[in-house]
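Supplementary Methods. Inverse-folding protocol.

Structures were first reduced to a discrete structure-token string of length 177. This string, shown here, constituted the complete conditioning input.
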């Protein structure tokens, strides 16, 4: 599958085909957002940076070299760099990230694993309805409308459950630090 995304990005770089970019965006944007959240960004900021990262993919596609990296590594590196730039601009605490960091899909290394485990423990403490919409939104990459349709609940309920889940996660995150 990685080779398929790498070929897709390389073709998009050559042809500037918007349909190829739409496929890349649909696949990578939710994953980039989840990655940025794991790096410590607030969900709203992560969403904004994911959009910015995907825009960079479109603008910088001509710089992509499939001989040096696969598409996911290149895209997650763009996102990581945007995250670091944002943290520096806002003078927020910044974690040093290893330049040889594994692919953004690999969650079993270093600090990312610790944060991921800590977040998973907090999510397990949430009420099931809140954990379910949180998982569907950030791990499955589904839109709020899709979640409402799948669960058969109003869109407002999806948004309320997410807001409540984030409030509880913030409180739990503060407790365990």
């Amino acid at each position: 599958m990685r080779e398929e995304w790498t070929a897709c990005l390389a073709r998009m770089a050559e042809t500037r085909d918007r349909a190829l970019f739409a496929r890349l965006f649909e696949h990578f944007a939710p994953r980039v957002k989840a990655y940025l959240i794991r790096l410590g960004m607030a969900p709203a900021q992560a969403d904004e940076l994911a959009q910015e990262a995907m825009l960079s993919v479109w603008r910088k596609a001509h710089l992509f070299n499939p001989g040096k990296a696969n598409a996911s590594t290149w895209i997650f590196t763009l996102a990581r760099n945007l995250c670091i730039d944002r943290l520096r601009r806002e003078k927020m605490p910044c974690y040093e990230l290893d330049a040889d960091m594994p692919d953004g899909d690999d969650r079993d290394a270093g600090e990312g694993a610790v944060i991921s485990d800590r977040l998973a423990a907090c999510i397990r403490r949430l009420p099931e309805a809140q954990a379910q919409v949180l998982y569907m939104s950030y791990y499955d990459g589904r839109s709020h409308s899709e979640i409402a349709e799948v669960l058969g609940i109003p869109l407002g309920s999806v948004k309320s459950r997410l807001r409540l889940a984030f409030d509880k996660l913030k409180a739990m995150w503060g407790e365990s630090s």
